[in-house]
Amino acid sequence: MVSFILGTGNSDFLEYLTQKIKKSTKKNIIIIVPEQYSFSAEKYVQFYLNELNKNIKVFSFKRLTHHIFKNHGGLAGEYASKISKISIINLILYEFKDKFKIYSKLMYKPGFSEMLLDCIEQIKNSGISITNLQSKLQTLTDKNLKLKTNEFLQIFSAYNSYLKAYYRDSSDDIIRANKIASENNCFNETEIYFEKFLSFSGAQFQFIDTMINQADVAFSLYYEDKEPLFETTKSTINKIKYMAKQKNIKFENFTVNSIIPKSPEIYIAEKNILRTRPISTPNKYTPIKNINVIIAKNKYEEVNYVLSKIIHLIQDGMKYSDIVLLTRNLNKYKNVLISALRNYNIPYFIDETSSAENMQLINFCYNLLCLTDSFDIETCLNLLSLDLTLFTTEEISIFENYVYTWNIDSKTIKHEFKNNPRGFVSKESVNSNDETNLKIAEKIRATIIEAVNIIKTSHNSSKKMATNILEALEILGVKDYIKTLECSDQDITNNLAMQWNILIDILESIYKITKNIFISKKQYKLLFENAIKNIDTGQIPRTLNSLLIGSIERTIVDNPQITFIIGANDGDFPYHSNSNGIFTNNDLIKFEQVDIKLGNTTLEKDSLERLIAYRTICSPSKSLYISYKTSDIGESNIYPSEIISDLIKIFSDKIVHYVDHKDIIFQCLTDKSAFLQLSQHFNDYSKESESLKEYFNTNKNYSNQISIINANKNNKQFKKLPVNFFPKVISPSQIEQFYKCPFSYYCKYGLNIKPRSKTNLDSPNIGLIVHYILEKVVSISHFLDMPKSEIKTNIEKQLSHYIDNNLGGEKNKSAKFIQTCNNLIKILLELCENIKNELNLSKYKPIKFEYEISSNSKIKCLKVPINCDSSIYIGGKIDRIDMCTINNKKYIRIIDYKTGNKSINFTDLHRGLNLQMLIYLLAIYQNGEEEFGDFVPAGILYMPATGAMKSYAISERNPSNEKIEEIIKKGFRKNGLILNSPENIEAMEKIEEGNCGQYIPLRISKDGKIFKNDAEKFLICKFELDSLFVFVKNQIKKMYRSLLDGVIEQAPINISENKTISCDYCDYREICNPENIKNIPMIKNITKSEFFDMLSEEIRNKL
Amino acid sequence: MIDEKELFDCLKINLMTESQKQAVLSENTPILLSASAGSGKTFVLSTRVIFKLLNSQKPICPQDLLVVTFAKSAAKEMFERISLQMKNLVSKYPNNKNLHKQYSLLSQSNITTIDSFCSNLLREKFELVNISPNFRIAEKAEIDEIKSKILDEIFEEQYSKSPQKFQILCDYFSLNSDLNLKNALLEIYQKARTYPFPKIYLSKIVREYKYPPKLDESSWAKEVKKGICDNINFRKGV
Q1: CA A118, CA A123: separation in Å to the nearest integer?
Q2: Is the CB of A952 inside 8 Å of chain B's CB atoms?
Q3: Torsion angle, CA of A827/A830/A836/A842, rounded to 10 degrees?
Q4: What's the CA gap between A797 and A774, in Å, rounded?
């Protein structure tokens, strides 16, 4: 007799079952439940059916097969672990690699072997044998499918043979147990009840077929006539009825009328959800408290709100064990959940197994194997960052910096590290620290290479590979490192011991399968990779009062009071299956057409998912909370599940709660969660955020953080900084940095945070080379008479010397480096030629090159008193000082070579920018009497060192092309400020009337006057120059006083009118997130006369 | 399945304009439905889909349906409209088994965005295109990193193979650095990828450089001419 006990999500199946068992005349009763439910079912039998004096047993399919094997034989042999199964699949793929047309190309693709194993297990679960499948192969009309199936069958068959040689396969258990049960009449005189199942696999159906032949079998199933929601049940009933009919066994339907006591809203939801018939709404007077829809912006808000709600329920007297939190997408939510659960101090149990992929030691070995297969710098750094070697974090950072700075790749890492860890540094500047760091970097390099080489010598043997991996771990100091931990932290040690055991298991499993065959490094890596993904690391048992978190499809809950469902988004709940796998949905349909049921089609999977969703909605006895997010991690919109729309239609939108700022206090349940809320709403200035600030101000763990944030947000002023916090001797570029943004100054010169730089020939390095070579070549005594060819030879000689001395030599340099050097020679040759021409035309002659202003040099630093007892000193290096004597008076101008665009204008000066040249001129004017005697400061000029590069390509420059020559010449015209005296201007360059200067930025009209615009921009009188010197000193004072007052705010400025801001090229932009900085002041253009008017005004005000 | 007359009533086809009706009922011919925003294009299209699924003459199977949109929201709206209408019909005809079946199969239809359709297709046919079945769509930063690495390698190779020629090429794009050439190459790459066969497109371009056609026939001259003509026509109009 076959009975179908039918009911809905609210039906009390267990009560019905109890009554039925009580009435039963049979002594042997078997209740078969899903594995996850077996513990609850046993508990139920113990409480309610124990007194019946019957032999009642509760089994899952797995336990039932074990019971049969135990009584009738079949327990001998070791079960294959997933690692072994995956390893076998990989070996077969390798073995067959030349025979396959389709699968040979895919053997190394990630996930492919797992997909094959899934397919094999699915077919085994479907109860289909290889012979079965082979017999139908010829009837397939689709050629591609035929070929694919043929190749798959060869793998399947080889897999079975391999497995048999070593192991038993748990996937074969049902088929084996069924055979035994059928031969031994195991179920005679027995009544069997199936409880809590939604559907059965093919192999299970075959087992059921044997059961109904020997026993009375009853199935409890959710069912409602004419509703597509119950399509899965309908199909199950039809299959079982068909089996019964074949055997002339009667079947009967029973309806469960008793219902589990639940809240009225849950009854209404059950009756209406996911149905096609018109939805009935509750009586308008029914208060709706027990159905809640929560809408959050993203999964973080969603999880935080839900966990807060759970705590509020606990505070109202609920127990954690009364609540379950389910999602159909546990993988997506797991990390967010675990981190939030810690913030809320909620005890929890997650019902799922974890992989070994993220374990420190396992990951370390995997990275090591990857390096052995193909060396890659990123992997090498990953390996070190796992912190399992005896190298300290500082040592690893030194190695990482070296690798970064010197562009070390998989080829260059094989050679000894010999360069300076700081990058391009002259031999004279090498210090003992550099030598120590180089030794450290080299030691790490050599150790890694040694470890990798050891594994490489494994000669295709998995035994040797395993021993070599262990030896490599020893070389890298992993064993010693673990030993050092033994005395310190017991938890970490235990965890590492567990990982060590897992590693040994993996190595042994791979060895067992592959001991008789050759195995390449790549293959071994693949086996290891698949093994760590699939290892089951076990679970910590659930404690009595903890929140159960589970995946909807795996977890069968036992009538909880409250169910939370998170992630109820379209496509996720009910889950919409994709057609992927070795056999696609269309393939499965084609197989069905030839009477082979390989697995469920997407339609069947979707039907089952809807039934699972229905079961979950009906699960609570008191309340249901269901939440979804409106956007995904990339902030694109995502949509609610149809269940949400159904619930809103049934209960109206009164059940909807939007998570918003009003929920701040609601979510403040622990200090951590409250601080999280405050950090998200710090700038709201709402009652809630202000109350939280007040609370944390008095909390000793948080008050310091609050005061720092407050200082930054409100006053833009920090605590006064000690006088010695910033350097006392500074360079003009520091002043520039401060006025571009005080915060960047603080990072660079206060905190000394330095960006890492690569040893590439980038603009700063090219600038240094240009300065060096110009100094060397222009200062040669006969430079002004030097022929072009000799200049070129000198440039080449100096460049070569510079590369040897400062850039680590020419060896191992990239082709791009060499090309850049060649281009540099051309640029420098043009530049030298132009300097030579200019000096031949001018009365000014260079007297100093790369001239130092410092406390140790002839010209001392510029001293600027800050207050009565302290001063600040500014030093630096002047590229070139030119002098000429006119009417027995000495005139001095200073020249700066610039590889980029730079010009002096009054707008920038007013904002504290481009003060460098004025500072230098002032320094030598103030302190240089001894060195230069009495002189007139005659000007400051920038010389564009790359000449006309921006107008003409180096590759196109050709000495015979006169037009280009002209353009190149124009490119060397200087700009800056020139002392406005006719003799000075003439000494710099004699400009013909109606012409413009070739080297100075002045045009003379036909009547002999300097153009007004040029005079306004570039000429300056002595009085104005003196005022500028005063202005410069004041700017320096202002800067230093501000720093001491703690003004280190983020205050970038506009660099040019095309919206470039100082943050665009700032090394610290990642730290301060400039996107949040608003109201950057616009550039207000200031002319020379406006500038000096403002200056006089300031002086008048001071007086 | 549902009698045509009844279906006309249920779907309010009789209330439609002639051209809307035509758009719903026309068969064996491609149709282009063009109308202003808010004029009911989605309504007409969803009615056409339902009509195709439920008419008693020759209903199509939902699995054989492909509705492609360019935005998730549009796909969602389309599916919801069709699903809701069919749900109403199922409750109106509770004993119509075929209608029930079509409704159950609706989740198997491809009403999706073009991205999602392509991704599913690749996932299903991974063995034909020789890609990993576990593939995922890379993040922009990851792709940028790979592109930059590859460009560096190519440039290094070119700098060492023929530095002079390569320098000339770099100079065409910028006199300061090779960055502009890199960006130009990335742009060409992006452009080529919009063609169904990028390599064929690129070799066609290269061929045109190697064996330049007459000025009048070159593709860029055609573009210039077209631009001039458009400009003239525009000015004439003004």
Answers
A1: 9
A2: yes
A3: -100
A4: 12
- The confidence score (pLDDT) of residue A1024 equals 92
Cβ atoms within 10 Å of A437's Cβ, excluding its own:
22
Task: List the structure tokens of A183.
Answer: 């031969």
Residue A1071 to residue A976: CA distance in whole angstroms: 35
Give the residue from chain A lying closest to B167, CA to CA.
A955
R_g of chain B computed on alpha carbons: 27
Q: Is the four-CA dihedral B13, B16, B17, B23 of positive or negative sign?
A: negative
Query: CA of A605, closest CA in chain B: separation in Å?
Result: 11
What is the dihedral sign for C-alpha B155, B157, B158, B162? positive
- 3-class SS of residue A537: coil
Nearest residue on chain B to A634, alpha-carbon basis: B139
For B44-64, b/e burial (b = at least 16 CB within 10 A) is: bbbbbbbbbbbbeeebeebbe
What secondary structure does DSSP assign to A484-524, as a single string?
HHHTT-HHHHHHHHHHHHHHHHHHHHHHHHHTTS---HHHH
Residues ≥6 apart with Cβ < 8 Å to B61: B105
CA distance A981 to A987: 10
pLDDT for the residue A957: 55
**Chain A residues lying within 8 Å of B91, measured CB to CB:** 276-278
Find out whether A499 and A362 touch, Cβ atoms under 8 Å.
yes
Average pLDDT, chain B: 89
Q: Tell me the one-letter amino acid at A896.
A: D
State the best of B127, B140, B165, B170 to mutate against chain A, taking most chain A CBs within 10 Å. B127
Q: Residues of A numbered 637-666 whose beta carbons fall under 8 angstroms of chain B's beta carbons: which are they?
A: 637-639, 642
Closest Cα in chain A to B92: A277
CB contact under 8 A, B120 and A638: no
Q: Which two tokens stand for residue A968?
A: 């190149």
The distance from CA A721 to its chain's CA centroid, rounded to whole angstroms, is 36
Interface of B with A in 170-229 (CB under 8 A): 171-172, 175-176, 178
Structure token pair of residue A118: 């899934």
Long-range contacts of residues A234-240, Cβ cutoff 8 Å, at least 24 apart? A235/A199, A235/A604, A235/A607, A236/A199, A236/A200, A237/A4, A239/A205, A240/A2, A240/A4, A240/A205, A240/A208, A240/A212
Query: Measuring CA to CA, which residue among A489, A472, A403, A385 is closest to residue A441?
Result: A403
pLDDT in the model for residue A155: 93
Contact assignment for A580 to B131 by CB distance below 8 Å: no
Q: Which residue of A has its CA nearest to B110?
A: A578
Q: Among A31, A35, A37, which residue's Cα sits nearest to residue A49?
A: A31
Q: Residue A818 and residue B132: Cβ atoms within 8 Å?
A: no
**Dihedral, A270, A275, A281, A287 alpha carbons, nearest 10:** 30
Interface contact A814-B159, CB threshold 8 A: yes
Judge contact between A681 and A661, C-beta under 8 A: yes
What DSSP element (H or E) covers A846? Answer: strand A845-853
Which segments of chain B are extended strands (E)?
66-69, 110-113
Average pLDDT, 10 consecutive residues per value, chain A (1103 residues): 93 91 88 89 83 86 94 86 85 85 82 90 92 89 90 93 88 94 92 95 95 95 88 94 94 91 91 79 75 94 94 93 93 89 89 73 93 90 92 94 90 91 88 94 96 89 91 92 74 81 88 82 85 66 77 88 95 87 89 91 92 95 96 81 91 90 81 87 83 87 78 57 75 93 90 85 86 92 93 95 89 87 88 89 92 92 86 92 93 88 85 93 92 93 73 57 67 88 91 87 89 90 92 92 84 80 87 77 87 86 73
Helix (H) or strand (E) holding A941: strand A935-944
Spatial CB neighbours of A995, under 8 Å, sequence gap ≥ 6: A1003, A1004
